[in-house]
Amino acid sequence: MNNDTDLIQRLKSSQTREQAFKELLALYKERLYWHIRKIVKSHDDADDVLQNTFIKVYKSIHNFKGESKLFSWMYRIATNESITHLNKNAKRLNITNEELQAHAINNLKSDVYFDGDEIQIKLQKAISSLPQKQQLVFNMKYFDDIKYKDMSEILDTSEGALKASYHIAVKKIETYLASN
């Protein structure tokens, strides 16, 4: 935790802010990119959301009170930015979030940054059939191996509710995969 405390202090100081922000980017850019990418699906959209996330972190670091881990706080911002992005796109295209997700998954096959096979596409379709909260919980636990305690800080939900959401999501995905 010491490193977080030191980094946060340097991010809040005008003399050390730029260098500390470069360190923050180096530490979290890739992890946040993949977290965002699992939500928005497209590489270009993930890049945009990642940029917005870091702009928001940069502008609001002075509001960070240290009540959660820095990582959890940034994941929460990335999650919220991703959902906002999806909602804006769905509204702009005048379609539902579910239709937007289906469209994004269909585009994965032609995405040069996606190296998955048919099984990965099928899994993504199964995940996208879940309600948004279950998608988030499943992705965070299954792909990122985030502990329920940390997830609780990120999503502001009890650990028990998250465990239940994860297990329900797993059952729904198993059912989807078995029938498709």
TrEMBL record:
Single biological process term from Gene Ontology: DNA-templated transcription initiation
Pfam families from the UniProt entry: Sigma70_r2 (PF04542), Sigma70_r4_2 (PF08281)
Stretches assigned to the RNA polymerase sigma-70 region domain: 27-91
Cross-referenced InterPro entries: RNA_pol_sigma-70-like, RNA_pol_sigma-70_dom, RNA_pol_sigma70_r2, RNA_pol_sigma70_r4_t2, RNA_pol_sigma_r2, RNA_pol_sigma_r3/r4-like, WH-like_DNA-bd_sf
Keyword set, alphabetical order: Sigma factor, Transcription, Transcription regulation
Limits of the RNA polymerase sigma factor 70 region 4 type domain: 122-173
Top-level taxonomic group: Bacteria
GO molecular function: DNA binding; sigma factor activity
Family: Belongs to the sigma-70 factor family. ECF subfamily.
UniProt protein name: RNA polymerase sigma-70 factor (ECF subfamily)
Lineage, broadest ranks: Bacteria, Pseudomonadati, Bacteroidota, Flavobacteriia, Flavobacteriales
